[in-house]
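Structure (tokenized):
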């Protein structure tokens, strides 16, 4: 297996507690992992105003260190508080230039990563996504016109990015990922392109994107362009575990308890019940309610995992009506 590093973003507040769960489940479920767990955190600076985005809680920092995580501070030069999703783009310039797997911090490890056999020379990303972007407007350009304009702008071959098994003007025909995980052999090359494409799209979206929102979608608009430019594409069977048996991108705790597998729930609860982990996570009220006060199990009892509502909004509405929504 090619050795690789894991990168995630840590900040004060919710993300620091998510990082603890990620680190704890990595050590529990993949004890043979030989790479480095890198938690990149932005330093205070002009783009953060008066806020300090760094993790400063001593107990959290000590626990992360004991779990083998390394904190990598970096300066925000392009995004900052105006677009925090840009942290994942800027952080790539500050980690060792070795094969890497980026994971959103709201991810837990549910299996042995040593079984993963990715080809890091061919970048890819998560297909656990919905048709969130673009949103087609009446009388406006369609999917083909919008995506083609972006490929053309950066000198990329649009036709070879298409999934010809899907019909024209259906969102799944076009290369689109969830940025919850992505990988490549070089964070430098990947990050340089990611930063270039994202900042240029944000600066001048172009007429085809005039009616499209780029917040919070900018990273997911630029990501497929980066992957295609570096010779990658949709993940093959060698990466299936990253949207299945090896990781769980849980996103929001009430949604996690509503729809994820019994195994994923057991992995999270086992990690959360470690004495030192519990001492840290109970500092964050949503985690305290969901993981330690039983509200997660109350949410879980509201749904049949074999017959979940088709739309996420319906799941959210059911949880909110029960008074159990928190984040």
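Design, position by position:
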């Amino acid at each position: 297996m090619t050795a690789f590093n894991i990168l995630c973003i840590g900040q004060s507040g919710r993300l620091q507690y998510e990082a603890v769960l990620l680190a704890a489940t990595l050590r529990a479920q993949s004890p043979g992992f030989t790479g480095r767990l890198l938690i990149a955190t932005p330093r205070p600076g002009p783009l953060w105003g008066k806020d300090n985005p760094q993790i400063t809680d001593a107990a959290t920092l000590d626990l992360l260190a004991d779990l083998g995580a390394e904190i990598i501070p970096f300066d925000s030069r392009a995004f900052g508080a105006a677009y925090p999703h840009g942290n994942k783009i800027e952080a790539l310039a500050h980690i060792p230039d070795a094969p890497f797997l980026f994971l959103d911090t709201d991810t837990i490890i549910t299996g042995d990563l040593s079984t993963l056999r990715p080809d890091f020379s061919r970048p890819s990303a998560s297909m656990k996504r919905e048709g969130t972007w673009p949103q087609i407007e009446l009388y406006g350009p369609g999917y083909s016109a919008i995506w083609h304009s972006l490929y053309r702008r950066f000198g990329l071959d649009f036709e070879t990015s298409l999934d010809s098994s899907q019909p024209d003007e259906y969102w799944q025909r076009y290369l689109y990922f969830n940025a919850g995980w992505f990988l490549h052999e070089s964070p430098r090359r990947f990050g340089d392109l990611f930063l270039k494409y994202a900042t240029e799209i944000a600066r001048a979206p172009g007429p085809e994107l005039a009616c499209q929102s780029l917040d919070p979608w900018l990273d997911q608009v630029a990501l497929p362009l980066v992957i295609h430019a570096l010779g990658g594409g949709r993940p093959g069977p060698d990466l299936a575990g990253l949207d299945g048996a090896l990781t769980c991108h849980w996103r929001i705790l009430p949604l996690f308890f509503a729809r994820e597998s019994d195994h994923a729930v057991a992995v999270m609860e086992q990690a959360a019940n470690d004495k030192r982990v519990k001492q840290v996570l109970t500092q964050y009220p949503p985690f305290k309610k969901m993981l330690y006060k039983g509200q997660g199990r109350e949410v879980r009892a509201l749904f049949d995992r074999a017959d979940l509502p088709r739309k996420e909004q319906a799941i959210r509405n059911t949880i909110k009506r029960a008074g159990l929504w928190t984040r």
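Reviewer-requested clarification: The mean pLDDT is 97. Strands lie at 5-9, 37-42, 69-74, 100-103, 107-109, 124-126, 178-184, 247-249.
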